[in-house]
Amino acid sequence: MNRRLAALLVPALLAVAGCTATGQGSATTPTARAERPSPFADCATLTRPPAATGAAAPSGATAPGSTTPGSTTPGAATTGTATPGAAAPTASGAVGAVLPSLILSCFTGGTPVALRDVRGPAVVNVWASWCPPCRKELPAFQRLSERAAGRLQVIGVNSRDTRSAAQSIGEDYGIRFPMLFDQGEALQRELGRNALPLTLLVDAQGRVRHTDATGALDDARLAALVRQHLGVQVSA
Question: Which residues make Cβ contacts (< 8 Å) with residue 38, sequence separation at least 6?
């Protein structure tokens, strides 16, 4: 009797074991959700000058490749010996200074961008998703990038933010210009500026001609600043 019962139970147990093994073997680990494509443009163009600036040199600016007395061409080697009567080096945050020696990652990936290699004329907008004036003015910068395409570059620097929050704002507001990522606010520290939003107007030699931290800028104000400090005519 026991032998007959065992003969009946063994196939049943094997069948159960076979189902369990099959279930385990067919289980798959859920795949991570694919990242959303970035709304922002690639940063590869930032180190190339605009196709045709069409800009008259603003007051105090110099033509590409030229220097003013006592100044040096950005990137040129300098010696440790001071020239009698030469001006002291200009601080990074001062008007007329070249952009700080920082390397920032591009939001879309690829090779990080050295700010000193950025080619102007350019308008650099430093912003964060949690800053209401930043969100308010972003569409005006997008329109500026479209109206002045080929004559100046519009560049975003997302600061003290998360990538997911910045991406969501870019998608919601239709922001397409290139975006650098500065999670540690290194650029603001170099410039000695804490407030957001912050806008830099940079000439063809990579020198900061104007900084603006007055709050949200609109189309008319942006057009006036670009005309005054970079010599680029843009419709408002």
Answer: 107, 108, 167, 170, 179
